[in-house]
Amino acid sequence: MTLDRSKIPEPLTEESFKMPSIERFLVNNLLKVFIIKKKELPIVRINLIIQAGSKFDPVNKKGISNLLTMCIDEGAGKYNSLELSEQFDMLGASFSLYSDSDNIHITLQTLKENFKPALELLSLIITKPHFNKKDFEREKRRILTKLKQLSDEPDYLAKTTFDSILFGKQNSYSYPSLGLEEDILNIRNEDLKSFYNKTILPENAFVVVTGDIEPDELSSEMNKQFADWQNNKVNLIFKNELKKDIKKVYIVNKKDSVQTEIKTGHHTTGRNSKDYFDKLILNTILGGQFTSRINHNLREKNGYTYGAGSAFNYYMNSAYFGVSTSVGIENTASALREIFYELSEVKNGITKEELSFAKASIIRKFPSNFETYRQVASNVIGQMIFNLPDEYFSNYIKNIKSVTVDAVNKSAVKYIHPELTTTVLVGDREKLQEQLSGNEFADVVFV
Fold first, then answer.
1. DSSP category for residue 120
2. 3-state SS class at 240
């Protein structure tokens, strides 16, 4: 038998995926718990998600949510900070936490045999944190030091400046999760305790547990360990006023820089829009993978960058479409022209071949997103945060397959607007000013 190597082999079977079942219960009739059994290894992973992200940071206290995550595990119950860390180490458990725009994320992973003592430590951190002033001042200094370091990082400058301009000062999403230096200096330990009392509440949280544990055992132990976690009235406020999109270019001066960090984009519809899968495939073709139009143009065709990409970025209460890359400063204007060209060109339509390739890429990678405990938990957390339907993952491949060329083309016209982009450039002002003179890029503003 002769093998015809000019033809790509057809897959032997249809791609399929079966999402592990999710069981649910309440702890003390308040805290929602979702459990996904995964018994390959004797491991239990607990993810506690609390709606207390930086969008809830009070005025003049931007950064308090992040500071809370850095202080809450600095001693709890009968353990000081060092003793608490040693307890986790003796159990072979890993513990981490961080704050983003929407939520505080707390993660505990432990061997099944050490699940109960590890859960007890977690409950102490949540319900009986010390908030010692000495620890508070130390963590505060750490954040201020980090902000000074990041103030020289082009990608951080581009992201924070872009968010600030795109959302506007009246929108809580415009501020970085790390906070603002002048605000952090204003935060007192008493402010931290007050924010804790207003946000770290069982009714304001949910838990995703992945691993080798039965729901009855988990429910019994969590009701026992979190019996002291009392609920107050949840009354959190944040601002979500949308600033109108207007095409402008903003330059952040980084003197003598040999590169320019580019970030450009505009507002879009949220994660729960009915045409989400159309947008997903549209972005995959446009800038969401290595073979995308934007990356091919800027990297392969013109050699301006090592990589360029686009994404629909989703928060709980807002969303934006954005393109990001870094180029040699001498190629900044040329790279912008090519980005705007691709944003305009995709509105003229995609091909059947592009659609088929994008679908195949997404579908074949999809099952691998559920291989590890972290991946399973991360996907379920996203499902809960965005209130996606129970059958979301089970129907995922079917929904991808159902997307048509016409649907993607309609989404391109509806959701891609090069004429409304906010563009932030971080680089040497004098060199950029020379390239961007004239009316080609609309208004140019120096930040």
1. H
2. strand
* Percent of the chain residues topping a pLDDT of 90: 87
Span 248-446: which CATH code? 3.30.830.10
Q: 248-446: same fold as 23-225?
A: yes
Domain parsing of the chain, residue ranges: 23-225, 248-446
SS3 category, 267:
strand
Instruction: Classify domain 23-225 by CATH number.
Output: 3.30.830.10
Range in 64-68, 131-135, 375-379, 440-444 the model is least confident about: 440-444
DSSP string, 292-323: SHHHIIIIIIT---S-EEEEEEE-SS-EEEEE
Instruction: Give the mean model confidence (pLDDT) for residues 198-203.
Output: 95
Residues linked to residue 248 through DSSP beta bridges, in sequence order: 422, 443
Q: What is the pLDDT of residue 236?
A: 87
Share of the chain above pLDDT 70, in %: 96
Helix (H) or strand (E) holding 377: helix 373-385
CA-to-CA distance for 179 and 73, rounded, in angstroms? 20
* Strands, E assignment, 315-366: 319-328
Categorize the per-residue pLDDT at 318 as very low, low, confident or very high, splitting at 50, 70 and 90: very high
Give the E-state strand segments of 212-299 in sequence order.
248-253, 259-267
